[in-house]
Amino acid sequence: MSQQLGRHSVSEILNNVGQYDDCDEIDWATPANWNLNPNSSPNSFGGCLTYAQVLQELDDMRTLYPNLISARADASPTNQTTFEGRTIWYIRISDNPDIDEPNEPETLYQSLIHSRESATVMNQLFFMWYLLENYDTDPAIRNLVNNQALYFIPVFNPDGFVHNQTQAPNGGGLQRKNRNTSASGSCSTYLEGIDLNRNSAYYWGNGGSSTNSCNDTYMGTGPFSENETQIMRDFFLLHDFELALNHHSFKNAMLHAYAGTNITNPRPDEYSKYNHDMTYYNRYAHGPSTSISSLNSGNMNDWMLGGPAGTSANGTPTGTGSGKETLAWTPENGLGSEAGATGSGFWPAPSNFLPIAKRAMRMNFLAAYFSGKYGKLHDLNQSDITDLAGNLEFAIENLGQKASDFTVTVTAVSANIAIPGATNSVTESFTAAQVLEQRFISIPYVLDAGIQADDEIEFNVVFTNNYASDNVLYEANIKKTYAPSNVIFDDATDNLSNWTAVGTGGTWATTSDNYPNSAGSSAIISNASIPYSHNQASGIQLTNSVDLTGVSTALIQFYAKWDLERSFDYVQLEASLDANTWTPLCGKLTKPGAPDANNTYSGKSTTNNNFQPDGEPLYDGDTQDRWYMEEIVIDASNNSTFNQQSSVYFRFVFFTDSSNREDSYYNADFEGFTFDDFKITDIKIPCVTSVPTNVAASAITPSTADVAWDAVPSATYDLRYRETG
Fold first, then answer.
1. Which residue has better confidence, 690 or 522?
2. Domain co-membership, 131 together with 177
3. What is the CATH number of the domain that holds 425?
4. 3-state DSSP assignment of residue 603
5. Looking at the predicted structure, is the pLDDT value of residue 24 above 80?
6. Secondary structure of 10-64 in HEC code, one letter for each residue
7. Counting beta carbons within 10 angstroms of the beta carbon of residue 528, is it exposed (0 to 12), middle (13 to 18) or buried (19 or more)?
8. So what's the pLDDT on residue 46?
9. Are residues 648 and 512 in the same domain?
10. Is 280 part of a structural domain of the chain?
11. What confidence category does residue 10 fall into, taking pLDDT thresholds of 50, 70 and 90?
């Protein structure tokens, strides 16, 4: 990806989905081979591909990309079939797709567990085609596929899927269960069979499932009584899946263990962090099924994760689950409002298959990354460098389930900075048990003695893991400025003297829990006590307006961490020209406010469910005590309303609803929002004093020319030598 909109400091050379931090989600290009059902009524199947068409898609993938995807294979190690005699097929995407390489991290994706949930198979095919078609051109995808194995079971419940096609060839069939009619007896249309997501062994029969054979949640005669769940169990136990996504619809939610019991989740930090990142833009509700949906025992996620042995309410010993400790989710994709002519949210309007598939892409990608050796690199260097020698500061955040060595390598790009000798590279080793750990690293630099104020400094940073020597997770050129003017700098050591309290219901304060490398010894926090109070609408405003006249690029930067009730409580940084009408500003750490339709799980009032401003940039959730650096740009292209205005006001605002809801995340402490070293820096356009040489006339267009300049070789300029990119 190239430099993202609103990012002054970073020009990205190689990015990945998890490192992406723009204001809006990636607009995923639709794969050329992904398509809806081409048939017209009465055999359109509501736009969803039929079972035969899905199998043909898998075969077509193999034909087109034999070096990346396996031929479809029997998921059952004993060639067991479904009740009606069908094979459950799986495929593997990897650089050696016909070999189960023993050391490769594995991720599992399943869909159509409930056979009426048509969007699930369509979003999986979208993701699969996207990987295959972009492998050659996207180095991040190539690195992922080369070093990991992604397993797909697109049609988990083929009998029920075919039954829907037979009963409702134009879509809308509501068969949810399998077609084991011998176990359920004679029921009305669509109600025969066993619910395959109530049939797994861990806490089977513990509530939220039915003993009535004609009920949609009929759990069967015993744990793993069904051919399909036996096949899944046997296949699963042959592998070491770190993460599994068992796709369902519809709710716009990410559900996970536990579903069939209220025992404590053993890995709340990982679930909380992974949920936060996977739902960053689609803002799906997330949490244990018992908090977001309802008790539903015999759930596949519970068995995959496992836990301590117990006894279900019906007296059945639970066992301990799979023994694999796999982090598993049920992504519920789609809303009832996206339903097609059938009126059922299980059958979206054909035009809605595409947006639903796109909403699932981040979850699908990150599930794979988190399964392996994955981390994020955070630049912690504010843009004003004032010392001729010092250290460049970064943070490595380990997010993968596998042990890894991460290496950060920094090299000079501009001629005015040097990274001495062998000190340009730092390697940190993380064990598998150190997932979610953040470490700060320092790399020394020396600036040219003749550097002038406002000169740009540029260096290249490469972040790798140890899959292979060339496995780059992230690479970027990063620009800083030597001794620029700070329009304002506040390090909180003066006890809020630059700020004025606004609003009601709470009090902002200073805290000694400041950023470790801060210029001062204090930071500013949204609340004087922990946990913060309810019904709060408080803020702090810079006492004086800021004059941005003549400031072509104003760069707002500060360090921050927070622990806020996600989807409800939130903080925003706002700007205004009159101190009356305020605009929330988007930074690389903000995310869009949670849509009201995704919050209805909460059990809260409609007022609370509608509390967050839908789609507005804000801070919520939990950074789990990790510090990051925020960056917001005001220039002619970003937040241009405030560009070069003589009187701009800034404030932080903190809003809390009427209650705090943990959703069984026992790490949620509701600590509030903390920030440190707040700066607004005047970044000046580089001044070129001589006409560049060796510029071919043929390369000059009427409007622009790309000009190489020794100080900032990655920049481009127009004919007046003003920087344009």
1. 522
2. yes
3. 2.60.40.10
4. coil
5. yes
6. EEEEECCHHHCCCCCCCCCCCCCCCCCCCCCCCCCHHHCCCHHHHHHHHHHHHHH
7. middle
8. 95
9. yes
10. no
11. confident
**Does any domain span residue 26?**
no
Say whether both 211 and 342 belong to one domain: yes
Q: Residue 577 sits in a domain of what CATH number? A: 2.60.120.200
Please count the residues of the chain: 725
| Calpha distance 495→477 (Å, rounded) | 37
Judge if 152 and 101 occupy the same domain.
yes
User: 108 and 174 in one domain?
Assistant: yes
pTM: 0.92
What is the domain extent for residue 179?
A: 45-260+299-371
Q: Nearest-CA neighbor of 380 among 617, 676, 635?
A: 676
Residues 231 and 363 in one domain: yes
* Whether residue 427 sits in one domain with residue 385: yes
> Is 446 part of any domain?
yes
What is the per-residue pLDDT across 475-528, written as a single tens digit (0 to 9) for each?
A: 999 999 999 999 999 888 878 899 999 988 789 999 999 999 888 889 999 999
Task: Provide the percentage of residues in the chain whose pLDDT is more than 90.
Answer: 82
C-alpha–C-alpha distance, residues 27 and 221, integer Å: 46
C-alpha 44/C-alpha 36 separation (Å) is: 9
Name beta bridge partners: 560.
628, 675
CA atoms within 13 A on the CB side of 190: 15
Q: Say if residue 362 is in the same domain as residue 382.
A: no
Last residue of a domain, one of 483, 515, 536: 483
Q: State the DSSP string of 604-666.
A: --HHHHT-S-TT-EEB-SB-TT--EEEEEEESSSSSGGGTT-S-BEEEEEEE--S----TT-T
List the single range of 114-118, 244-248, 506-510 with lowest mean pLDDT.
506-510
From the number of C-beta atoms within 10 Å of its C-beta (0-12, 13-18, 19+), residue 636 rates as exposed
Please work out, in degrees rounded to the nearest 5, the angle formed at the alpha carbon of residue 350 by the alpha carbons of 347 and 355: 95
Domain assignment present for residue 21? The answer is: no
Of residues 13, 19, 2, the one with CA closest to residue 365: 19
The answer to whether the beta carbons of residues 321 and 302 sit under 8 Å apart is yes
**How many angstroms separate the CA atoms of 712 and 699, rounded?**
20
The CA-CA-CA angle for residues 148, 149, 154, to 5°, reads: 145
Query: Which of the four pLDDT bands, split at 50, 70 and 90, describes residue 603?
Result: confident
Eight-state DSSP code of residue 258: -
- Give me the DSSP letters along 86-113: PPPEEEEESSSTTS--TTS-EEEEE--S
* Structural domain total, the chain: 4
Domain boundary among 483, 517, 539: 483
Q: How many Å is the Cα radius of gyration of the chain?
A: 27
